[in-house]
Amino acid sequence: MELQDVFYNKSEYIETASGNKVSRQSVLCGSQNIVLNGKSIIFTDCIIRGDLSSVRVGRHCVISSRAVIRPPYKKFAKGVAYFPLTIGDHVFIEEDSIVQAAQVGSYVHIGKNAVIGRRSVLKDCCAVLPNSVVPPETVIPPFAVFGGSPALQVSELPESTQLLMTELTREFYQHFQAAPG
């Protein structure tokens, strides 16, 4: 299935030298601690909290509107400590999702309105269904599909998931173009 072209107003997005397209309406707190490795799209009203700890986002990632990316934390007797958040390559995070994972592997799809609990680990080639709540410190294995509240494994992904996610994110980036004129 061929994706339709999505046009954006060039004045509303910043395009970096490495090909990242970041909405001017997104909130990047502590931008010195946020690393986008290239050809990623950050839509409007996203919040990425680099002021808490470092956030690394791989290549060809899509972070949809109103998503919140926040490093995980752990409470200690003397206070709270935040840990770095790493997101792999070819990751698609849909609208209104909240991600507080310690690690999101490559080729991962997170559905709309999903909540990823703090210090969770999403391995490569897995998916979280829309409206799911992944409990804190959950490990989602490769090729697993998690859904529900609390999220449990509901099915498995095909072995071609890596290829499918690579194709999806690359095509999405190619079809996300500046409006003519």
Task: Outline the structure in words.
It is built from 1 helix and 25 strands. The mean pLDDT is 94. The chain is mainly beta and 181 residues long. The protein has one helix spanning 161-175; strands at residues 6-8, 13-15, 21-23, 27-29, 34-36, 41-42, 47-49, 55-57, 62-63, 68-69, 73-76, 79-82, 85-87, 92-93, 98-99, 103-104, 109-110, 115-116, 121-122, 127-128, 133-134, 139-140, 144-147, 152-156, 176-178. Strands 2-3-6-9-14-17-20-23-24 form a 9-stranded mixed beta sheet. A 6-stranded parallel beta sheet has the order 4-7-10-15-18-21, with no helix packed on it. Strands 5-8-13-16-19-22 form a 6-stranded parallel beta sheet, with no helix packed on it.
Mean pLDDT: 94
Q: Which percent range describes the beta-strand content?
A: 35-45%
Total E-strand runs:
25
Helices and strands, in N-to-C order?
Answer: EEEEEEEEEEEEEEEEEEEEEEEEHE
Shape: globular
Please give the share of residues in helix.
under 10%
Which parts are unreliable, with pLDDT below 50 for 5 consecutive residues or more?
none
- Measured between the Cα atoms of the first and last residue, the distance is 28 Å
Instruction: Name the structural class.
Output: mainly beta
Strand sequence of the main sheet, in spatial order? 2-3-6-9-14-17-20-23-24
Please tally the helical runs, counting DSSP H or I stretches of 4 or more residues: 1
Largest sheet: 9 strands, mixed
**Cα-based radius of gyration, to the nearest Å:** 16 Å
